[in-house]
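Entry for the shared binder. Reason: the reviewer on the internal report wants the predicted structure included alongside the sequence.
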Amino acid sequence: MNDAYQNKGSAVISFAAVVVIVIGLQMAKDLLVPFLVAAFLALITVRPMLWMQKNRVPSILAALIIVSVIMLILAVVASIVGASIAEFTAALPSYQARLDVIVQGALDFFGRAFNGEEAFESLGDMIDPGWAMGLAATILNSLKDVLTNVFLIIFTMIFILLEASTVETKVAAAFGRSTQSLKRPRVFLANLGNYLGIKTVVSIATGLAAGLLTWSLGVDFPLLWAMLAFLLNYIPTIGSMIAAVPAVLIALVQLGPGEASATAVGFVAINMVFGNIIEPRLMGYGVGLSPLVVFIGLMFWGWVFGPVGMLLSVPLTMTLKLALESDKRTRWIAILIGSERDAQHALTRRRPSRLDNDEEEQTA
């Protein structure tokens, strides 16, 4: 009985600790979000940094070169997209009003056609067609707000890059761990860096294709749809679908159903080519997470850190999975949130031990 009460007490304390940590993260998001963005950029650029160090480029000079390139890219993006974000935000109410009129007209038509005016009227009360446009504006404005802390992000990124080549030696000296014991975190960080690097290249190509598509069709704000497609491509499966919806709705309001259909078909084709053909061949492996967990992580990290948390939901969830795998008591949670491939690998590792136990019992 005492053991049962102790186990229940430990579970309650653990749950309370998790709740306190999550609330603390949410309260400190103004400080943590720039740090997460800096860590994200550092993971993408650490391989070029280490490559330059191997070619006898001093660490400080290599970090400054990488950071200078990142600052130049951010300055160009901010100057080009910033004005478009302001124009789109100002024009958003008029787009939403026109979309409401189109949706209401369609519902009235179907209500008269199927003799269900009341049902379609109640359906219209539940539908908010301008929600996707508002979400796009929120994400883009959140990115704009994060970039106002560009100096904090850049300085944090410099220090992370400078520490990257020495952290393994410091950890081994501090905790007395051998190089072999650090293999798992090292492999995880290498895989995460490769994943983010390839994902960034594919996202850039996806954004360029989406921008060219909307520009060729004459849809307003093609730079915004290119930026949105680039950002949301970091969210597997559902990110690309979310990015397509605002552009299709703008095309419907501005140009009509024909151009809206062409925009939707174009986005589907882009996502098929880059998401289902090119990216899997470049990756060679998945994110190691269940699709359901990817969606739940998107909602959870978005609630904790806002739109930036949604964009970084996969790296954050992968990091959480690594932390759960490192402890035998929580390893079962890591298996449950992982992919089917991880579960099969865990079964393969357990199966020989069970056979051995059966043989031992038979021998006895």
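Summary line for the report: Residues 138 and 344 are 40 Å apart (CA to CA).
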